[in-house]
């Protein structure tokens, strides 16, 4: 589904618009003028549905040259191996995420906890995938589009948001950093960190995106900073933004 001149949603489960496997995060596709990149990959149980959605848009999957991961959680990186092989695309992420996904380090990306919580099915098997590390603030070029990664931890280790500038608008692929109505996602897992989350909210407020594209829930095509401002209002009064769990 095309949502912007240069952006499509090609995967999304029950926490989004329901066009691919129910456990998929929202998978965005960026059009760099004939060369494409995916942001995240979904869980990897039925990656063909994502490929079919791309095909329905009339886009040749061989034109997808890169897959950019926001973080290593299964619903975001589990489809990396299937999609990268189908598209012959390389996969990129911040260093920690690159290490976890490349080595199939299921403990570091809390797969067991997600299965126990019922977020993923009991028979879910995570598939490792080679990932090339990116540095914080690194610029990544897809055709005529530049994406910049920002380290935005708190939800988990190695989480990054991707900033894209197009026609004087700032667009932010925000992963699991911020959601509808200023919610955050703190979970009972080893690498959730409130202090880092507050720093992330401040970073996002500084970026002040016009368009906000989270990996779950609704997205904003205008005044994208609204959800971030909502979280910051709470933080400014020494509170903790509302929590969206199990994402
Ligand atoms: Zn996550």
From TrEMBL:
UniProt cross-references to CDD domains, sorted A to Z: metallo-hydrolase-like_MBL-fold
UniProt-listed SMART domains: Lactamase_B
Residue ranges of coiled coil: none
Pfam families documented for this protein: Lactamase_B
Domain of life: Bacteria
Boundaries of every Metallo-beta-lactamase domain copy: 24-216
PANTHER family: ACYL-COENZYME A THIOESTERASE MBLAC2, METALLO-BETA-LACTAMASE DOMAIN-CONTAINING
Protein's name in the database: MBL fold metallo-hydrolase
Organism of this sequence: Mediterraneibacter hominis
